[in-house]
What we know:
Elements (H helix, E strand, L loop, with lengths): L5 H11 L8 E5 L5 H11 L3 E3 L3 E5 L2 E9 L6 E2 L1 H4 L4 H23 L11 E5 L7 H11 L5 E8 L2 H8 L4 E6 L20 H10 L12
Parallel strand pairs: 1-2, 1-6, 6-7, 7-8
Antiparallel strand pairs: 3-4, 4-5
Helix pairs in contact: 1-2
Amino acid sequence: MRFANRKAAGEALAQSLDRYRGADCVVYALPRGGVVPGVVVADALGCPLDLVIPRKIGHPHNSEYAIAAVTEQGEPVVNAAEVARVDAEWFEREVANQRREAARRRQSYLGDRDAVSPAGRTAILVDDGIATGLTMEAAVADVKGRAPARIVVAVPVAPADTVARLRRAVDDVVAVEAPELFLGGVGAYYADFRQVGDDEVVEAMENFRNPGRDDDADS
């Protein structure tokens, strides 16, 4: 299956998540690519929407090769074999740098809005797809530390082996497509996989009306 774009992927994903409609849930989108499907899913399920912002840590000699991932507050998720081979002080500095960047992005995307708590609720983590799963695992670790009742990972596409691994870490994994033979990148499953800009994230989050929030209180 090939999705036309992230909005269409979000619509397909929302259908696969229909059993959570009306549940006490929160959708956490992973920016930037997960925000478009995250908005669609949150709207369809009638859930509040927030962000969890994982940042990958690339190898010092190849920044595109992720050896770890971290969020604003969660513990780093690491490829232990690779991290053991790099300078420990460099790694600690890079973790701190990426935590600061995640915090900067939250401020940029959401301003001073309070985070939506997952405590006692079903937390649904949405991205536009998963390849290795490292950044999603960091997002799961972050949310797990905030006492949700359940954690659901929801994506349009992910390799079957990654889905199987994530199932051991969360309560449910929903993937519209989970091919045994993965085509090498999430973009291969989209007709339109253009990069999502920061301004698009800000606009999407500003326009989404979180259920239960009185947007017209000051009007």
